[in-house]
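Subject: mismatched residue count in predicted assembly?

I count 228 residues in my input, but I want to confirm that the predicted structure covers every chain. Input:
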Amino acid sequence: AQSVAQPEDQVNVAEGNPLTVKCTYSVSGNPYLFWYVQYPNRGLQFLLKYITGDNLVKGSYGFEAEFNKSQTSFHLKKPSALVSDSALYFCAVRDMRVPGKSTFGDGTTLTVKP
Amino acid sequence: EAQVTQNPRYLITVTGKKLTVTCSQNMNHEYMSWYRQDPGLGLRQIYYSMNVEVTDKGDVPEGYKVSRKEKRNFPLILESPSPNQTSLYFCASSFSRDPYNEQFFGPGTRLTVL
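Triage response: the counts match. Full output below for your records.
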């Protein structure tokens, strides 16, 4: 069975500081990892994904994520946070062995204060 | 505009009254999926469809039905809704059945079952 853990319900950072939102995963085969963002009263929007290759993945709005196979982690990062980055962030995993199944973490609320 | 649409956006109903939430995508996507979002539980997959006439259970299928008779539509049916199905529901689609494709989400349907 595949699973995703987002250990922090809430992350608070000051504007201009770097941010990290943590994600760890468990799958039987090779993982396909995703980050999505949800703004209030909106659907989820895709930010970035890891398929294979370079462990550092760059995505939308200046976000990036680092895949670490040994630690089974896929942490979301941004060098300088903006107030407008405040939202709910979800990590998700899929596996070629069961390609239709998609497992999401519980979400992390990011608050960036001016 | 490429999008996933859901109707209705808000619905209040009573226990046992059959209802259908429609989902439609205009991107010719092969894969579609339904999720429910509950506080502290993230997104949980209800059903997914790898292609027309191909559907399969996700993690929380009990009390729900789906059908995929056309590529663009993937309705979610609650034959006899119960209060524990009160939730925020999202439909999503992706280009193909391959698990490395990101998903595009609809705006959500907030369902209350009294």
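The first strand of chain A starts at residue 3 and ends at 5. Marking this ticket as 'not a bug'.
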